[in-house]
Amino acid sequence: MRAWRVTVAADDEDLATAALWEAGTAGFEVRGTPEGRVELVVFFADDAPPLTLDLLPPGAALEPAVVPEVDWVARFREGFRAFRVGRFVVAPTWEAPDGPSPEVLVVDPGRAFGTGTHETTRLCLGAIEDLAARRPLGRTLDLGSGTALLAIAAGRLGARPVFASDLDPEATRSSRHHARINGARLGVVRADGGRGLRAGSFDLVLANLMALLLVDRSAEIRCLLAPGGALVLSGLLVEDLPFVSEAFAACGTPAERLDGEWGALVYEGAR
């Protein structure tokens, strides 16, 4: 990684940033300076062409800068702390208790597939908890499981048996790893959506996926439900809710859960 220090008039900041993106910058920091000027510390890959003044607005100044040595793992750990979602506490591995705790969901952020902090995960966890207060969760599937945090939470709330399914082999490895560090009994299956899974087998299906994928696979997802089953769809922007709801109209009228710009749909008694 190489860095440059670019100084331009404050009025030229937008022109400079547009030119830097056009030149292929990997990112930059904006720093104010005295006398109405702006300093940009700009980062480029080692194999990128050198940055030259002719690419910048008139009057710009340009000089090489030192790329700081940053321990990104330590920086991430400083900012990621355990947090509560309903009855659960989602905790990174470095804040986890010594043994399994029924209220703690341990996440290992170093293994990709999220940290459990996203609004869509919180929406799903809240939906599972509310469902468990009203009905037995029964045989449960976490579809597109990633870390399988949702499957583990369902198991903590009485779901039996619980399965986590994903097509990505790294995701299934992550699911097994998280089952192990949470002391959870979890069946992990590598499968392409609902394909390869027996129709009518699950009392609860959790699908925290993208809206377009949910719509494209709506028929096979619906077929996974046993009569009277419950379905939680998340990973949705609020503007996507009507679009997805229409694709799952055969499941009835959903309850909506909202968190900022994100939403989830919860169906009970669906098939």
Overview of this structure, please?
- The chain has two domains: 2-65, Alpha-Beta Plaits; 120-270, Rossmann fold (3-Layer(aba) Sandwich).
- A seven-stranded mixed beta sheet has the order 10-9-8-11-12-14-13, with helices on both faces. It has a four-stranded antiparallel beta sheet with strand order 2-3-1-4, with helices on one face.
- The mean pLDDT is 90.
- The protein is an alpha/beta fold and 271 residues long.
- It has eight helices and 14 strands.
- 27% of the residues lie in helices and 32% in strands.
Strand order of the largest sheet: 10-9-8-11-12-14-13
The number of helical elements comes to 8
Low-confidence region ranges: none
How many angstroms does the end-to-end distance come to? 53 Å
- N-to-C SSE series? EHEEEHEEEHEHEHEEHHEHEE
What's the level 1 CATH class of the largest domain?
Answer: Alpha Beta
Domain unit count: 2
CATH topology description of the largest domain: Rossmann fold
Q: Report the principal-axis shape.
A: elongated
Total beta strand runs: 14
Q: In percent, how much strand structure appears in the residues?
A: 25-35%
CATH architectural category of the largest domain: 3-Layer(aba) Sandwich
Rg to the nearest angstrom? 24 Å
